[in-house]
Amino acid sequence: MAVLGIDASRATTSQRTGTEAYAYFLIKSLIPLAEARGHQLRLYFNQLPADGLFPQSDHVEIVHIPLARLWTHLRLAWELQRRPPDVFFTPAHVIPRTYYGRSVATIHDLGYHYFPEAHPQNQLRYLKWSTQHNAKRSQVIIADSLATKADLIARDGVSAHKIEVVYPGIDPTLQRIDDEEQITAVLERYHIKQPYLLYIGTIQPRKNLERLIDAYLQSKVPCQLVLAGKVGWLADPIVNKIANIQKHNDQSAISNLILTDYIPDEDKAPLISGATALLYPSLHEGFGFPILEGQQCGVPVLTSTTSSCGEIAGDTAVLVDPQDTHTMAEAIKQLVVDDHLRQSLIEKGLANVQKYTWEETAVNVLNILEAVAQN
Q1: Which is nearest to 213 in space by CA: 281, 260, 274, 271?
Q2: How would DSSP label each residue in 187-246?
Q3: What angle, 0 to 180 degrees and rounded to 10, lies between the N-to-C axes of helices 18-36 and 358-374?
Q4: Nearest to 45, CA basis, from 21, 24, 76
Q5: Is the Cβ–Cβ distance between 106 and 90 less than 8 Å?
Q6: What is the pLDDT of residues 268-326, one digit of tens each?
Q7: Which of 10, 38, 55, 97 could form a disulfide with 23 if both were Cys (CB 3.0 to 4.6 A apart)?
C-alpha cells in the first residue's frame, strides 16, 4: 500500500474551468480505484470541500490546512515535510518550492510561449517559472496531449522519457438534452433565440474571439452568436468589441451577439444541445474540453488545426486555421447551410468522444503514481 498525496485545492471551486475540472473529475475517479488497489489517498485542501463533493472512506484522508496567502509554498510545503507521502501529485498547480520528495505534476499547456501578449506580465512570469519548476522537480510529468509533450521538449528542453501523455476524460453527467422545454427555459434565461452558434469557455485573448466575431459577421449567417463563459484576463478588447456591435445593431428586439458570463453546470448541456454548432477556434490549447463537450451533446464542432485541437478532434470536426478569418467565415457558413455535413459530424463526434473517459484517465495516472512511489 502507498500513501498518495494530492493537491486538491483547485478541485473545490464552484466555477470550474478546464484545469479545475481536470482536478475535480480525476480525483473523483482516482478515489475508488486507489481504494480497490489498497492505497491511501491524502487530499490537501486550503478550504474544506462541500459535503458530498468527494466520497469519504477509510482510504481517503481530508487534510484541511487553511492559509490566506502563499498556501502552496508555506502551508502545504510544511505539511508535506511533516508527513511526507510516498508520492505527491499536483494535477492543476505547482509543486511547493521546498519539497524535494517524489512527485508527479500535470502540465496542461504552454500557450504562453506562443502568445505571451495574451497574458498579464505577472501571470506570464509565473507560468514560465511554474512550468520549469514542475518539469525540473517532478519524477514524471503528465501531459494532456501529444502537442503539449512536443512543446515541453521543444520549448523547455524536457526529456521525452520524463513525459507521459494521458488524455483527460469528459464529464459523464454531460449528455445531450432533447427536451425542448428544458432547452427553451435555459435559452430564455440568457436572452438567446434559436438558431444560434455557440462558443463556450473563458473569455480571453488566447481563445481567438475577436477573430471569431469578425468571421461570424463576414459569414452573414441567420444565427445568433453566443459567447458563453466567464470573463478572464485581458478581455477588455473582446468585451468592448461586443458592446460596440450590440450598440450599433439595428434589430430592436435582441442583439445577434450574446455574451452570457459564466454558465453553471446545470445549464451547460441544454445550452450546448440547442446550438446549431459549437465554434472553438482557439489559438492554442493543451487539450480543449469544449470540443468534446459539443460532441458529447450531439452538436457539430468547428475548431483549430493548431496545438491539440486537431489532435483531439481529428476528422470528427471542421478544422480551420484560427488566424484565417475568411476561411473561418466560409466554414461557419457551410456548417449552417449543409445539413448533411452537420449530421456526419454529429455521428463522428459521438464516436470520438467515447475514447475519453475519466475512468481510463485515472487508471493511467494511478499506474504512474504507483511506479514513482515504488522507485
Answers
A1: 281
A2: HHHTT--SSEEEEES-BSGGG-HHHHHHHHHHHT-SSEEEEEB-B-TT-HHHHHHHHHHH
A3: 70
A4: 76
A5: yes
A6: 999 999 999 999 999 999 999 999 999 999 999 999 999 999 999 999 999 999 999 99
A7: 10
**The C-alpha cell of 346 is what?**
454529429
Q: Are strands 196-200 and 257-259 parallel, antiparallel or unpaired?
A: unpaired
Cβ atoms < 10 Å from Cβ of 224:
22
Cell numbers found for residue 27? 480525483
Cell of 6: 494530492
DSSP 8-state assignment for residue 75: I
Q: Degrees (nearest 5) of the Cα angle 166, 106, 350? A: 40
Coil, helix or strand at residue 160: helix
pLDDT in tens, 223-267: 999 999 999 888 899 999 988 887 776 553 346 899 999 999 999
